[in-house]
Amino acid sequence: MLAKTSIKTTDQLKSFIRDIPNFPKPGIVFKDITPLLKDGQAFNAACQAIAEPFLNGKIDHVIGIESRGFILSPLVAYQLKAGFIPVRKKGKLPARVERISYALEYGEDHLEIHTDAVGKGHRILIVDDVLATGGTAEAVVKLVKKLGGEVVGVAFLIELSFLKGREKLKSMDVHSVIQY
Ligand code: AMP
After folding, report:
1. CATH number of the domain located at residue range(s) 55-179 in this protein
2. Largest CB tally within 10 Å, which of 10, 27, 126, 130?
3. pTM of the complete model beyond 0.90
4. Catalytic residue numbers?
5. Whose CA is closest to 65, among 103, 14, 100, 13?
């Protein structure tokens, strides 16, 4: 899976993820991917590993979720020779948008996509850095389906398995490279 770099195992990749306790608020252990991004071999291996299950998936577009999803998803799109579509926070996209509101631990948040970004039957891969509770990815799946797209898969660098985010993505093909 990681054959083309000197990083051979996901445990090696894991060693580049840094835990930051109590960020951004008390009780959260933030998975900081910046040490991985800084290392050429690890960054390359991580992007390859995210793309690998979908190499033959005939993906038309990779969707990245603002903000950290924007770092990884264009590189995955490049490897799949697919286009890149941004899903952004409220008020950032300039043309007509489809918006979805979804529940956070406290309160709610909103994500937007251009209404003309996804066409009927387009084959879509959704990519983000971390799968936690799954609420964000679930919201993006709903946006894609509303526009008529087909979600071929949902891929993450990191999955926090203990938060059971997969349960919100039950009917989906979900892949993660590193699990905790
Ligand atoms: P969720 O909707 O709960 O699956 O949260 C996913 C989003 O929140 C992702 O876009 C992540 O970037 C971010 N996130 C959630 N928990 C963490 C964490 N422990 N470390 C880093 N990012 C996180």
Report:
1. 3.40.50.2020
2. 126
3. yes
4. 68, 105
5. 100
Q: What is the pLDDT along the chain (180 residues), one digit of tens a residue?
A: 555 678 879 999 999 999 999 999 999 999 999 999 999 999 999 999 999 999 999 999 999 999 999 999 999 999 999 999 999 999 999 999 999 999 887 789 999 999 999 999 999 999 999 999 999 999 999 999 999 999 999 999 999 999 999 999 999 999 999 999
Distance in Å, CA 132 to ligand 1 centroid: 5
CA 96 to chain centre: 23
Ligand 1 pocket test: pick from 17, 130, 156, 157 the residue with the most ligand atoms within 8 Å of its Cβ: 130
Exposed e or buried b per residue across 33-43, where buried means at least 16 C-beta atoms within 10 angstroms of its C-beta: beebbebebbb
Instruction: Provide the residue ranges of all domains of the chain, joining segments of one domain with +.
Output: 55-179
The strand pair at 18-21 and 29-32 is best described as: antiparallel
